[in-house]
Design goal:
It is built from ten helices and eight strands. The protein has about 240 residues and is of the alpha/beta class. It folds into two domains: about 10-40, no CATH class; about 45-220 and about 225-235, Rossmann fold (3-Layer(aba) Sandwich). It has an eight-stranded mixed β-sheet with strand order 6-7-5-4-1-2-3-8, sandwiched between helices. It is globular and about 70 Å long. Bound molecules: S-adenosylmethionine.
């Protein structure tokens, strides 16, 4: 059936864009435009989340931060990988997204997920509290990256790592709006922030996938006591 737009009063006709967006959201099962934009269409095909998680070699019981977790595309797979004795911090500065992940974690009974409403310049994680920080498609959002990532060292446990998955020049859609960072920029900035490149994977066809460890690890790190108290801004998902 063809819709006759002329038969519709002008005030409603002007709503056609909103109407199209609403239909799109309903068809794709997205709760919001932001969720749709982050999760995308057919993302599993090119993102290969399981292969990414396997490559990270996460041990059960590990504590992992999903930095810039958005709607939680990686958060729930990470929660499965760490298991019931581990923990995943879903960290974001956007309250809509932290509320969404809190809601989804409750619905799925994922009690090993803790949501943190972060500051733009600080993820507010527990000091010396995480084994791995994974950040996917969020690197380009972060300002003053060298100082931001230098500051992240204090949140890593002695064997802690930072994994960065980021759109690069091959991602034409993301690249169109500048939502990408060439891998060589990331390597240079991370080196300036005090890290060494540990591994580089090339199986993703739109994104670079790099794993870094603090350079200072080999030298003597001043011991920092683990934080015992609750994490600042942590929202419970239970
Ligand atoms: C493109 S989305 C990616 C979401 C998710 N990682 C994924 O792969 O679907 C980028 C996310 O990073 C968040 N973000 C931006 N700047 C941030 C910062 N300084 N700290 C934490 N999260 C940030 C945004 O709010 C957004 O949810």
């Amino acid at each position: 059936m063809k819709l006759n737009w002329r038969a519709i009063p002008a005030k409603f006709r002007n709503l056609r864009v909103e109407f199209a967006v609403l239909i799109f959201l309903l068809l794709t099962g997205c709760a919001s435009l932001k969720q749709c934009a982050y999760e995308g269409y057919n993302r599993d095909d090119w993102q290969q989340p399981q292969k990414v998680i396997e490559s990270l070699q996460i041990r059960p019981g590990a504590v992992v931060a999903d930095l810039g977790s958005g709607s939680g595309y990686f958060t729930f797979d990470l929660a499965r990988a760490v298991g019931p004795t581990g923990k995943v911090y879903a960290v974001d500065i956007d309250r809509d997204m932290t509320d969404l992940v809190t809601k989804r974690a409750k619905e799925r009974g994922a009690s090993n997920i803790a949501v943190i409403l972060a500051k733009p310049d600080d993820p507010l994680l527990p000091t010396r509290g995480v084994d791995l920080i994974l950040t996917v498609d969020a690197y380009h959002h972060i300002e003053n990256r060298v100082s931001y990532f230098a500051n992240l060292q204090k949140y890593l446990r002695p064997d802690g790592r930072i994994a960065i998955v980021e759109f690069d020049r091959r991602a034409s859609f993301a690249g169109l709006w500048g939502h990408y960072t060439p891998a060589e920029f990331i390597k240079r900035e991370m080196e300036q922030a005090g890290y060494v490149l540990q591994r580089e994977f090339d199986f993703l066809d739109r994104q670079s996938f790099l794993i870094f460890a603090p350079r200072a690890r080999a030298q003597n790190l001043a011991p920092v006591a683990p934080a015992d108290g609750p994490v600042q801004n942590e929202q419970t998902t239970k």
